[in-house]
Design goal:
By secondary structure, the chain is mainly alpha-helical. It folds into two domains: 78 residues; 42 residues. Helices cover 69% and strands 0% of the residues. It contains three helices and no strands. Helix 1 runs antiparallel to helix 2. The protein is elongated and about 100 Å long.
Length: 138
């Protein structure tokens, strides 16, 4: 079994995608008045680190493919500017989506179960019930 490419696993892909999308989410926080300059500095730092990670991975793959071509290990050198294998990235992104969706569903089910348990507990304590008629009032 192969360990795969570093940075293309679930954790690496989640970190890169999250860092690339962070400015969009921070814009909505800024509109609500919940943003700060410190948050923006952190977000831009992570955003540019994610861009650098993608660029370095691509340049490394391009260099490795050109070296393999020069050594005669593969027939032709890559002609494009993108050397990251998209099929494994797509499979990992799909798996990441399934994991995140499963976590959100589990969280939603947990909240529903908690709400039902709280409702059941409040009913058993008599909260929300009509008081029983007192037999001495007849």
């Amino acid at each position: 079994m192969s360990a795969g490419l570093p940075g293309l696993g679930l954790g690496g892909l989640f970190a890169v995608i999250s860092a690339l999308l962070a400015p969009l989410f921070e814009l909505s926080r800024m509109r609500r008045g919940e943003s700060s300059p410190d948050r923006w500095r952190q977000i831009w730092r992570q955003f540019f680190v994610a861009i650098a990670m993608v660029a370095v991975l691509n340049l490394t793959m391009l260099g490795a493919l050109h070296l393999a071509s020069a050594l005669g290990l593969i027939a032709t050198a890559p002609s494009g500017i993108l050397a990251i294998p998209l099929a494994p990235v797509g499979i990992t992104a799909g798996l990441l989506s399934v994991v995140l969706l499963g976590a959100k569903l589990a969280h939603g089910v947990r909240e529903i179960v908690r709400a039902l348990a709280a409702r059941r507990a409040s009913r058993s304590r008599g909260i929300g019930r009509e008081p029983l008629p007192d037999s001495s009032q007849r």
